[in-house]
Write a structure and sequence with these properties.
Layout (H helix, E strand, L loop, with lengths): L17 H33 L28 H9 L29 H9 L14 E7 L2 H14 L1 H4 L2 E6 L4 E6 L3 H13 L5 E3 L1
Antiparallel strand pairs: 1-3, 1-4, 2-3
Length: about 210
Protein backbone atom coordinates (compact mmCIF):
# COMPACT_ATOMS: atom_id res chain seq x y z
CA UNK A 1 0.00 0.00 0.00
CA UNK A 2 1.41 3.53 -0.82
CA UNK A 3 1.15 4.87 2.75
CA UNK A 4 3.48 2.17 3.95
CA UNK A 5 6.38 3.18 1.62
CA UNK A 6 9.47 4.82 3.26
CA UNK A 7 9.55 8.66 3.12
CA UNK A 8 12.84 10.63 2.79
CA UNK A 9 13.79 12.90 5.75
CA UNK A 10 13.20 16.46 4.54
CA UNK A 11 14.98 18.06 7.58
CA UNK A 12 18.49 16.87 6.60
CA UNK A 13 20.47 19.44 4.53
CA UNK A 14 21.43 18.41 1.04
CA UNK A 15 24.96 16.95 0.85
CA UNK A 16 27.67 18.98 -0.96
CA UNK A 17 28.93 17.55 -4.15
CA UNK A 18 32.59 16.68 -4.58
CA UNK A 19 32.96 19.35 -7.28
CA UNK A 20 31.81 22.18 -5.03
CA UNK A 21 34.03 21.02 -2.18
CA UNK A 22 37.06 20.91 -4.50
CA UNK A 23 36.32 24.42 -5.81
CA UNK A 24 36.11 25.80 -2.24
CA UNK A 25 39.45 24.23 -1.32
CA UNK A 26 41.07 25.77 -4.43
CA UNK A 27 39.74 29.23 -3.55
CA UNK A 28 41.17 28.97 -0.03
CA UNK A 29 44.56 27.88 -1.35
CA UNK A 30 44.71 30.70 -3.91
CA UNK A 31 43.86 33.29 -1.22
CA UNK A 32 46.51 31.93 1.11
CA UNK A 33 49.06 32.03 -1.72
CA UNK A 34 48.22 35.66 -2.50
CA UNK A 35 48.61 36.66 1.14
CA UNK A 36 51.93 34.82 1.47
CA UNK A 37 53.25 36.33 -1.77
CA UNK A 38 52.29 39.85 -0.70
CA UNK A 39 54.01 39.49 2.67
CA UNK A 40 57.14 38.09 1.03
CA UNK A 41 57.28 40.96 -1.46
CA UNK A 42 56.88 43.59 1.25
CA UNK A 43 59.60 42.01 3.41
CA UNK A 44 62.01 41.76 0.50
CA UNK A 45 61.40 45.37 -0.47
CA UNK A 46 62.20 46.65 3.02
CA UNK A 47 65.29 44.48 3.18
CA UNK A 48 66.58 45.96 -0.09
CA UNK A 49 65.97 49.53 1.09
CA UNK A 50 67.86 49.02 4.37
CA UNK A 51 70.81 47.16 2.87
CA UNK A 52 74.18 48.62 1.90
CA UNK A 53 76.91 50.51 3.79
CA UNK A 54 75.90 53.36 6.15
CA UNK A 55 75.71 56.80 4.64
CA UNK A 56 78.27 59.31 5.92
CA UNK A 57 76.85 62.71 6.81
CA UNK A 58 79.52 65.30 6.12
CA UNK A 59 79.70 68.61 7.97
CA UNK A 60 79.33 71.87 6.14
CA UNK A 61 82.58 73.62 5.19
CA UNK A 62 83.78 76.41 7.44
CA UNK A 63 84.22 76.84 11.21
CA UNK A 64 81.61 75.33 13.51
CA UNK A 65 81.57 78.34 15.86
CA UNK A 66 82.29 81.97 15.00
CA UNK A 67 83.21 84.58 17.58
CA UNK A 68 80.83 87.55 17.39
CA UNK A 69 82.22 90.98 16.57
CA UNK A 70 80.50 92.52 19.63
CA UNK A 71 80.43 89.95 22.47
CA UNK A 72 78.49 92.36 24.73
CA UNK A 73 78.70 92.49 28.52
CA UNK A 74 80.55 94.87 30.79
CA UNK A 75 84.19 95.54 29.99
CA UNK A 76 86.10 95.62 33.30
CA UNK A 77 89.65 96.53 32.41
CA UNK A 78 92.39 94.88 34.43
CA UNK A 79 90.25 92.65 36.63
CA UNK A 80 90.05 89.74 34.22
CA UNK A 81 93.81 89.51 33.80
CA UNK A 82 94.37 89.45 37.56
CA UNK A 83 91.71 86.79 38.02
CA UNK A 84 93.15 84.55 35.32
CA UNK A 85 96.70 84.99 36.59
CA UNK A 86 95.70 84.16 40.16
CA UNK A 87 93.81 81.10 38.95
CA UNK A 88 96.89 79.95 37.06
CA UNK A 89 98.94 80.00 40.27
CA UNK A 90 100.87 83.22 39.76
CA UNK A 91 101.73 85.39 42.77
CA UNK A 92 100.14 88.79 42.24
CA UNK A 93 101.50 91.45 44.55
CA UNK A 94 98.45 93.67 44.90
CA UNK A 95 98.96 97.04 46.54
CA UNK A 96 96.53 99.79 47.37
CA UNK A 97 97.14 103.26 46.02
CA UNK A 98 96.61 105.37 49.13
CA UNK A 99 97.14 108.62 47.18
CA UNK A 100 94.25 107.97 44.82
CA UNK A 101 91.59 109.03 47.37
CA UNK A 102 92.27 111.99 49.67
CA UNK A 103 91.78 111.32 53.34
CA UNK A 104 89.19 113.33 55.22
CA UNK A 105 88.95 113.77 58.95
CA UNK A 106 85.93 112.17 60.56
CA UNK A 107 83.87 114.70 62.41
CA UNK A 108 83.41 113.94 66.06
CA UNK A 109 79.74 113.58 66.98
CA UNK A 110 78.47 116.43 69.08
CA UNK A 111 76.82 115.58 72.39
CA UNK A 112 73.08 115.98 72.50
CA UNK A 113 72.17 119.23 74.14
CA UNK A 114 69.54 119.10 76.89
CA UNK A 115 66.15 120.49 75.97
CA UNK A 116 65.51 124.01 77.12
CA UNK A 117 63.48 124.52 80.24
CA UNK A 118 60.73 126.20 78.25
CA UNK A 119 60.28 123.21 75.96
CA UNK A 120 60.21 120.84 78.96
CA UNK A 121 57.53 122.94 80.62
CA UNK A 122 55.52 123.01 77.37
CA UNK A 123 55.65 119.23 77.15
CA UNK A 124 54.47 118.93 80.74
CA UNK A 125 51.66 121.42 80.11
CA UNK A 126 50.17 119.38 77.23
CA UNK A 127 46.78 117.91 78.14
CA UNK A 128 46.70 114.20 78.75
CA UNK A 129 45.11 111.95 76.17
CA UNK A 130 41.35 111.58 76.71
CA UNK A 131 40.34 108.39 78.42
CA UNK A 132 38.34 105.79 76.54
CA UNK A 133 34.57 106.39 76.76
CA UNK A 134 32.79 104.27 79.32
CA UNK A 135 30.58 101.45 78.06
CA UNK A 136 26.82 102.26 78.04
CA UNK A 137 24.86 100.89 80.94
CA UNK A 138 21.27 99.74 81.19
CA UNK A 139 19.10 96.73 80.30
CA UNK A 140 20.91 94.70 77.68
CA UNK A 141 20.29 91.86 75.25
CA UNK A 142 23.01 89.36 74.39
CA UNK A 143 23.23 88.88 70.62
CA UNK A 144 25.93 86.21 70.36
CA UNK A 145 29.32 84.83 71.38
CA UNK A 146 32.30 85.19 69.00
CA UNK A 147 35.97 84.23 68.89
CA UNK A 148 37.41 87.74 68.49
CA UNK A 149 36.29 91.40 68.45
CA UNK A 150 36.45 91.54 64.63
CA UNK A 151 33.76 88.87 64.34
CA UNK A 152 31.65 90.59 66.99
CA UNK A 153 31.85 93.95 65.17
CA UNK A 154 30.92 92.30 61.86
CA UNK A 155 27.88 90.67 63.51
CA UNK A 156 26.84 94.00 65.03
CA UNK A 157 27.04 95.79 61.65
CA UNK A 158 24.91 93.07 60.06
CA UNK A 159 22.22 93.20 62.77
CA UNK A 160 22.21 97.00 62.89
CA UNK A 161 21.65 97.13 59.15
CA UNK A 162 18.66 94.78 59.41
CA UNK A 163 17.02 96.04 62.60
CA UNK A 164 16.68 99.77 63.41
CA UNK A 165 16.14 98.88 67.08
CA UNK A 166 19.66 97.41 67.24
CA UNK A 167 21.13 100.35 65.34
CA UNK A 168 19.72 102.75 67.96
CA UNK A 169 21.04 100.73 70.91
CA UNK A 170 24.46 100.85 72.52
CA UNK A 171 27.06 98.27 71.49
CA UNK A 172 29.00 96.43 74.21
CA UNK A 173 31.64 93.71 73.62
CA UNK A 174 32.49 91.82 76.82
CA UNK A 175 35.58 89.53 76.86
CA UNK A 176 34.80 86.14 78.40
CA UNK A 177 36.75 82.81 78.40
CA UNK A 178 38.76 83.31 75.20
CA UNK A 179 35.80 84.82 73.41
CA UNK A 180 33.71 87.95 73.06
CA UNK A 181 30.11 88.50 74.14
CA UNK A 182 28.16 90.92 71.92
CA UNK A 183 25.40 92.83 73.70
CA UNK A 184 22.99 95.66 72.88
CA UNK A 185 22.14 98.12 75.67
CA UNK A 186 18.73 99.85 75.77
CA UNK A 187 17.22 102.65 77.81
CA UNK A 188 14.55 100.48 79.43
CA UNK A 189 13.71 96.85 80.02
CA UNK A 190 10.64 97.13 77.74
CA UNK A 191 12.80 98.29 74.83
CA UNK A 192 15.25 95.44 75.42
CA UNK A 193 12.40 92.89 75.60
CA UNK A 194 10.75 94.21 72.41
CA UNK A 195 14.05 94.15 70.48
CA UNK A 196 14.77 90.55 71.52
CA UNK A 197 11.26 89.47 70.46
CA UNK A 198 11.82 91.12 67.09
CA UNK A 199 15.11 89.24 66.62
CA UNK A 200 13.55 85.90 67.56
CA UNK A 201 10.68 86.47 65.13
CA UNK A 202 13.26 86.98 62.36
CA UNK A 203 15.05 83.73 63.28
CA UNK A 204 17.96 85.21 65.26
CA UNK A 205 18.97 84.11 68.76
CA UNK A 206 19.06 86.46 71.74
CA UNK A 207 18.20 86.66 75.42
CA UNK A 208 17.80 89.32 78.10
CA UNK A 209 20.78 89.82 80.41
CA UNK A 210 19.79 90.07 84.07
Amino acid sequence: MPWLEPVEDEDEPPALSARKMLAAILVVLVAAGLVAGTLYWIGKRHAEEGSGPPELVRAEPGPYKVKPTDPGGINVAGDSETTFATGAGEDIDGQLDLDAVPEEAIAKPRPKEPAPVAEAEAEAAKPAAPAAPAAPSGPSVQLGFYDNPAQANAAWNSLAGRFPAIAGAGKVIVPYQKGQRLRAVFGSADEARAACQLLKAAGDACFLVR
